[in-house]
Sequence to fold (446 residues):
Amino acid sequence: MGQKQEKYDAVVLGSGIGGLCSAALLANKGYKTLVVEKLPIIGGRCSTLKYKGFKIPTGVVAVPMSGVLRSIFDDVGANFDVSPITVPPKYLIDKRIIDEPSDGQPLSILSRFCSDEKEVSMLKRGIEKAGTWNAPSNETTLLDFLHQYTGNKNIISYFNNKCDIFFTVGAHEVSAREYFLSHTGSLKDFQPIGFANQGSISLMKALKKAIEAKQGRVLTQCRAKKILVRNGIAEGVVVEGKNGETTILATAVISNTGPKKTVALAGKEHFDRGYLKQVRNMMPSLQMWVTTISDRPLFDVPFLFTLKTRRLLTFLSASLISTGLAPEGKYVHYSISGPATQTGPWNLKNEVNLHIQDLKDNLPDFNKYGEILHVGCYWGELPTYSNTPIAGFNNIPQKTPVENLYNVGDGVAKEGGFSCGSPGCALTARIVVEDIENRFKPGQLF
Ligand SMILES: Cc1cc2nc3c(=O)[nH]c(=O)nc-3n(C[C@H](O)[C@H](O)[C@H](O)COP(=O)(O)OP(=O)(O)OC[C@H]3O[C@@H](n4cnc5c(N)ncnc54)[C@H](O)[C@@H]3O)c2cc1C
Fold:
């Protein structure tokens, strides 16, 4: 037990999207709120590192410009410094470039991959039914679903690519249910997609400013060491910061550290076996992100989808949209790849080599003018998503079995909100804050 003691309505462990969105909403509603972040910088997997004047993401690059994340910024008066991608994407397949049709219909692209109009129309009908009538089972993969209508390799590669990018898992593994529910859920928020002009950390700094404007506090280099639980109720947390240990008493404890760490911080004796099993079964996903720099653009549109490659999924020429990501006159590009299967095992060196080989084979200007600045493999403790939406996966609720102890973030995204990182995390914050508001008023502890 720490020597010093402080009291808050809510303490938030971790300053990722879920944590800062929760804290900003609570502070805005008058709750005395503290955020503790173990690292020297805020944002977790929505942050930015600077190297040689270029901005390297720790996570979020593609920012949803509508929906729940955006609405939280508006509610709390935080600056949303994001520029939309207004240029349609292109598709690279079998060394050919295919343009996105200009009719605004998401599925008209399918006719560019397959000349059998009857087959395409049957597939469209099946997709429409899954979206508007009833999503398929969580036990079925999207590939199984597609095979009911088509075996066309180009079409399959199109869906595979979209799944791998937005769901971090290919069509052969992704839950068909999550795929369809997300299209009416969190994926809709990516209309349009944008890039943060100064990197994603600027969004997290804007939330921090909004928290502090309402007398909330955000402490960095302050690690949560123990969640205090008595008689099945969370009472606060012991933190260790620059000035040693402090006991924070709080009515609500919100953990953004992920369900596994939440259980470890509170002690597993406070959780029932079913919950512990759900948490144990969580499967983090792996993606490789390569940052390339150049003196000139390497491709003419910001979003290039690369189909039928060994590993490469997309090539984002982010500084074509957000010039603040690179020094003046320079360009920065982020490319993504995923392994053939999220269930592993992988050879990370091999995965990175396949990614780079794909860049060389598919982007002639990468060979001539590109220079690799950074390679990152995101998995394990720093995954791309905390709980991969493979067929049969479990959603974990935001409320834990311990009263007044909540989780927020991508480990506890709602059904239909799994697949897309930031909007799913923001939604967990909304859900938790609504619950807190229904249960107690600011200052009720004292
Ligand atoms: C490379 C990569 C690219 C991605 N691209 C996109 C994208 O383009 N668009 C998108 O929407 N999503 C993207 N995602 C997913 C998205 O980044 C994550 O889903 C989201 O940022 C997770 O946020 P979170 O709320 O779960 O918190 P996290 O980002 O996981 O933050 C948790 C925080 O808690 C802190 N913490 C942990 N333990 C403690 C402790 N004991 N005490 C105090 N603090 C603690 C950590 O330091 C961290 O800051 C990407 C992810 C990665 C890795």
